[in-house]
Specification:
The protein is an alpha/beta fold. Helices cover 33% and strands 22% of the residues. Strands 1, 2, 3, 4, 5, 6, 7, 9, 10, 11, 12, 14 and 15 form a 13-stranded mixed beta sheet that branches. Strands 8-13 form a two-stranded parallel ribbon.
């Protein structure tokens, strides 16, 4: 059997699984940002008509999945796997949503790297012949994340400049081998990241904790595939924010593989207007890259504005327990190469 592995960490997907449905649901603050018109729906408030913030996040998750499946021309009964996660303990948003949907469920926890992690695994499942259509989803909610990881909302704690604002939102993508509609994009390759920990322990400085993992994954993919920053129309990180963005640029310069300024974008810097919205270093959370990918980038791939992008969500693998015990924050980043359907869709 011919291996599809390239180098140490990269997997080639010669069948080029298709992304054929996308859903992006966000909160009020995200809707007021620069990308507000790109999303499928903007909630009027943080509760989204529910009795708790956790229930609101779950409703966003289910609505994003429902929208993605409908756009793909499918029904929930035709979806063979749900791959997804969120930030809450025991990924209760994803698992309780899977309970309601009745779709075979593979729960994932990659922190804020979950969207790209799910796309990588979906691509391998389909390319390996283990499924025909799956849905990937990830979500976060400012209010649920803050009171789990840091302080009760009522506490009104002072946020340092390095802090990021957890995006309230959910994104979902249908990946299929049998497109019933015009594909948005095709998955060409994926690179599974390693856990990297350079000793950052400040839960309010996640950008610095995640940037080394982002650099490690980028360098691994470039080494494995013989490509470089110039081979991609965009290199997109998930939610490094300003601190992590600048640190990644520095790390890549030191590795002598500098990123091209106009081709590198971070979802955490795109989803909010930092001059007008009080988000400090930018956005974060599973829903950050999930909503920006589905609301902004996939349409650009579909219409050919972008031909090939490297989408890499980044995650801080912390927990309330580890933070309270003084542990450092390991980082992880998974990358997926997405190509426009106008490129042909096959290797």
């Amino acid at each position: 059997m011919q291996l599809k592995r390239i180098g140490q960490q990269t997997i080639d997907l010669p069948s080029r699984p298709a992304l054929c449905g996308n859903g992006s649901f966000v909160g009020k603050k995200e809707g007021e940002g620069p990308l507000g018109l790109r999303f499928d729906h903007v909630a009027k408030d943080e509760l989204y008509g529910q009795e708790s913030f956790e229930l609101a996040e779950r409703r966003l998750y289910l609505d994003a999945i429902d929208t993605a499946i409908k756009k793909a021309g499918l029904t929930p009964e035709e979806i063979q796997f749900l791959l997804g996660g969120d930030l809450l303990n025991q990924i209760i948003t994803a698992s309780f949503s899977a309970r309601d949907l009745g779709i075979p469920f593979i729960g994932l926890y990659g922190a804020c790297s979950t969207m790209s992690e799910s796309l990588c695994l979906a691509g391998m499942l389909l390319d390996g012949g283990h499924a025909q259509q799956v849905v990937c989803a990830a979500s976060s909610h400012f209010c649920t994340a803050e009171r789990q990881y840091r302080f009760p909302l009522e506490f009104g704690s002072q946020r340092p400049p390095t802090a990021q604002w957890t995006v309230t939102g959910a994104g979902a993508t249908v990946v299929t081998m049998e497109p019933k509609v015009q594909p948005l994009a095709h998955i060409a390759r994926c690179c599974m990241g390693r856990v990297v920990d350079l000793g950052i322990s400040d839960a309010n400085n996640m950008g610095a904790a995640m940037a080394p993992a982002a650099a490690d994954t980028l360098l691994s993919l470039f080494r494995d595939t013989g490509t470089g920053p110039e081979d991609y129309d965009r290199i997109i990180t998930g939610d490094l924010g300003q601190v992590g963005h600048d640190l990644l640029m520095q790390l890549m310069r030191e590795a002598r593989v500098p990123l091209i300024d106009e081709r590198y974008q971070d979802c955490g810097l795109m989803i909010y207007n930092r001059e007008e919205q009080d988000v400090h270093a930018g956005g974060s959370g599973c829903g950050c890259s999930a909503t920006v990918l589905n609301g902004f980038y996939l349409p650009k791939l579909q219409n050919g504005d972008l031909k090939r992008i490297l989408f890499m969500s980044t995650g801080a693998l912390m927990s309330p327990t580890s933070s309270q015990q003084g542990e450092t924050i390991p980082g992880i980043a998974h990358a997926v190469v997405l190509e426009s359907p106008l490129m042909g869709g096959k290797a």
